[in-house]
Amino acid sequence: FDVRVDGVVAAERDLPGKPHPDTFLAAARDLGVEPAGAAVFEDALAGMDAGRSGNFGYVVGVDRVGQTDALYAHGADVVVKDLGDLLGQGGRA
């Protein structure tokens, strides 16, 4: 990736953490893309909230602990167990 906005960068820029969308928005801005044209990939409910409130075009929930329904409830467009599952994935069945 050409851009990284992690906890260190967020602290340097004084960006609030999730569920605020600020870190995701900063990464989109650094990449030169509009949030509506970008995707968020997250395994945390707060990350789903951040992606949705940041108006990102697609929010992918990664269910690592059996919380598929909660990820959808927090704004996921699709939930997968593994990012490889996205190949051919069309959304919630």
Structural summary, described in words:
The protein has 93 residues and is of the alpha/beta class. The chain is built from 4 helices and 3 strands; from the N terminus they run ααβαβαβ. It has a 3-stranded parallel β-sheet. The mean pLDDT is 93.
List the helices and strands and how they pair.
Layout (H helix, E strand, L loop, with lengths): L6 H7 L8 H10 L7 E4 L2 H9 L4 E5 L5 H6 L4 E3 L13
Parallel strand pairs: 1-2, 2-3
The helix count comes to 4
Any idea what the shape is?
A: globular
Helical fraction equals: 25-40%
Q: What structural class should be given to the helix and strand makeup?
A: alpha/beta
Largest pleated sheet:
3 strands, parallel
Distance between the termini: 31 Å
Average pLDDT across residues?
Answer: 93
Helices and strands, in N-to-C order? HHEHEHE
Low-confidence stretches: none
- What is the radius of gyration computed over CA atoms, rounded to a whole number of angstroms? 13 Å
Strand order of the largest sheet: 1-2-3
Strands, count: 3
**Beta-strand residue percentage:** 5-15%
